[in-house]
Write a structure and sequence with these properties.
By secondary structure, the protein is of the alpha/beta class. Helix content is 32%, strand content 19%.
Length: 319
Amino acid sequence: MAARPEEAIFHRAQCRRFKGLTKEKDWKGPFYFIQGADPQFGLMKAWKVGDHDNSGDEWQEEIKLTEQAVQAINKLTLKPKFFVLCGDLIHAMPGSPLREEQIFDLKHVLEDIDPKIPLVFVSGNHDIGNSPTPESIAEYCKNWGDDYFSFWVGGVLFLVLNSQFFQDASNCLELKEAHDLWLDNQLATAEQLKIKNVIVFQHIPAFLQSAEEENGYFNLEKSKRLDLLQKFEKGGVKAIFSGHYHRNAGGKFNDLDMVVTSAIGCQLGEDKHGVRVVVVTEDKIHHKYISLDELSDLTVKEMISSHLEVNDESPCLFY
């Protein structure tokens, strides 16, 4: 497939909106999307040699896995509404000599995605740094579009957040304040309009199993976590989808679903390389992690048909 202009693929998130996904503010019927996380070009080598911070000078395995994901998604007869990558697109931190090469190779793979399927990007700690700066965030935006924004699909409001602001914003306090004010306004509007389904994407999970769990590298600090969850609940957020953990996990905060999706790239547990298929109906959000080897029309339609009536005449009731 011929490469398309970079602007059309990687920079659709501008001015806190996502080009092409802005007008569907009324419920139109069930739909599905695909969530991936952590292709993280370079981590598999770094993890293998045990030098997580300074190694990662090979990423052929990640290239092959991400190509496999793109090819499997392209072959789906029923196209997802979008494909979202929940952070850690590459492994090399800002300032690393390997960074530009990893970004180039990832873009080269992602250019082959079906043009009918929008690519939505979420910033991870490796994309903007553990302690991001205005410069590292500007570099991310130059490569991938806005680091936070909202969009609409079929009456559902999606919020893409920069979760590193919740973790360590000491070097970019003004940017964090702008992000938090924007988020508060988004949630207030959602509450006022009584939007039935609001879904959040962020790289770092609020929690892995329980909102009361101890602090750790893979979750948000407890007081920040609880404050955020209460805000989300008040604003009508039904689910948070994240990555970062390189394993599948998740739990509930009252009726809010925290979904932690394992990696396309390096696995730190027993899961297989894969993505998550998410079906949104009027009353509920259904999801299932599917390995890249098993991702096909059959597995997607099986997942959909377990929640919707599907027959030969009407392969899917989706609008």
